[in-house]
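Wed. Picked up where I left off yesterday with Response regulator transcription factor FixJ. The coffee machine is broken again, so keeping this brief.
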Amino acid sequence: MQSETNPLVHVVDDDDAMRESLEFLLDSSGYSVRLYHGAQPLLDALPKIADGCVLTDIRMPGMDGIELLKRIRATGRTLPVIVMTAHGDVPLAVEAMKLGAADFIEKPFDDEVLLGAIRSAVEQSRTEAADPAIQDFTERLARLTQRERQVFDRLVAGEPNKVIARHLEISPRTVEIYRANVMSKMQAASISELVRLAVRAGAA
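Structure written out below (tokens, as returned):
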């Protein structure tokens, strides 16, 4: 049985080097770690998994991370699931968030960003309390201008600046300015944080 100070992280990735790197990072950060080379081995072990959180890549041969998340949720389990995604896969990550993922991390990621996401996921699994950050997020969202809200909606849908510019018939540079305003007003440090809060607030 895992202690409160030594949570268990189930790492799912088909890349041997990535699994070993994550094992070293998490182990040295005080976590217990179990490694799986694909989605199916985790599902096979799921009945015996009592706690912790799942950290899975999205793009894997065979069953991908999205399908793994669906299968876990279909069992009724509420294990927090964090998905790892390559740059450009934000729409997939948004889909994962809507399916109940706790967070998503874009590769290559900073170690502290990943560890922060895991800490949040573990804490989320231990409490049923409503997150006051969601209420704050909703209030800040209501204060965006009409154009900022249009840019916000397309950002959380995973559209790059050039696509947003084309849809809104403004220049990419203008999109960059609105994007910076949105990130500042929403107090989001990254697109992943913006998407995570937007999904949890029902705004994506």
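Quick read: Residues 8-126 form a domain with the Rossmann fold fold (CATH 3.40.50.2300).
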